[in-house]
Specification:
With about 220 residues, this protein is of the alpha/beta class. The chain contains seven helices and six strands, in the order E-H-E-H-H-E-E-H-H-E-H-E-H.
């Protein structure tokens, strides 16, 4: 929670398919009262445009972000009410390597990379820092802050698996974007929210995005909204 000294979660969005996952994570963080710093890679802008029709522009990022987060996973606009929800979001351009989060002295709770492309996984595992997203992830690891990497790719080749092992050994949580069905999903948004909820679980952020397993077989059929 924001207690006067701003300490945000940094959310990095890479070029992998899965921009609805990122939107759900961002909504979950904001609903929990968390501050957010956002980094949207150049490749992810193309994916966002393809998946939602939204052009994400540096000069109009707040307007574009509001439209993105209001959109449901099924493509319907204005599914979520984002009015008054973006006051504590900061945006940093992917090419700005002098941005605040590029330094370990910048206060942050940790970083969530969602979705994470195999290129982003490789860049972070190898410490390339080719853009701000990779640089912030490397800083997060060196500062021993939580780093959650939601990998969205299939199938995975051997090199990517090695990179994922390297991230795990460096202290990151490698979290494949794999929806589960025991929560009683009846809509595409439910599947998206399950993955987003698992990302927030790994970060220790409270949420109510999915029904948790309680040891009751058939519980999903008894789900009440």
């Amino acid at each position: 929670m924001n207690d006067g000294k701003r300490t945000p979660w940094i959310v990095g969005v890479s070029g992998a398919s899965g921009t609805p996952y990122a939107a759900s994570v961002l909504r979950g963080l904001l609903a929990a009262g968390e501050s957010v710093d956002l980094v949207v890679s150049r490749a992810s802008r193309l994916t966002l445009l393809d998946e939602t029709g939204i052009s994400f522009r540096d000069a109009h990022w707040r307007e574009d972000l509001a439209a993105w987060l209001a959109r449901g996973a099924d493509g319907k606009p204005e599914t979520f009410d984002m009015s008054g929800r973006l006051e504590d979001v900061r945006y940093w351009a992917a090419g700005d390597l002098a941005a605040g989060p590029s330094s370990g002295s910048y206060p942050a709770k940790g970083m969530l990379v969602v979705p994470a492309s195999t290129a982003a996984v490789a860049g972070v595992a190898l410490g390339l820092s080719k853009d701000l997203l990779q640089r912030v992830a490397s800083v997060t690891l060196k500062e021993r802050r939580p780093l959650v990497v939601a990998v969205r790719e299939t199938p995975l080749n051997g090199q990517t698996l090695k990179h994922m092992v390297a991230l795990d050994e460096a202290g990151a949580v490698v979290l494949p974007a794999s929806p589960a069905f025991y929560a009683g999903a009846t809509h595409i948004q439910d599947l998206v929210d399950f993955v987003a909820g698992r990302v927030l679980d790994a970060a220790g952020v409270p949420h109510r995005l999915y029904r948790r397993w309680e040891g009751e077989l058939g519980g999903a059929t008894l789900r009440s909204d």
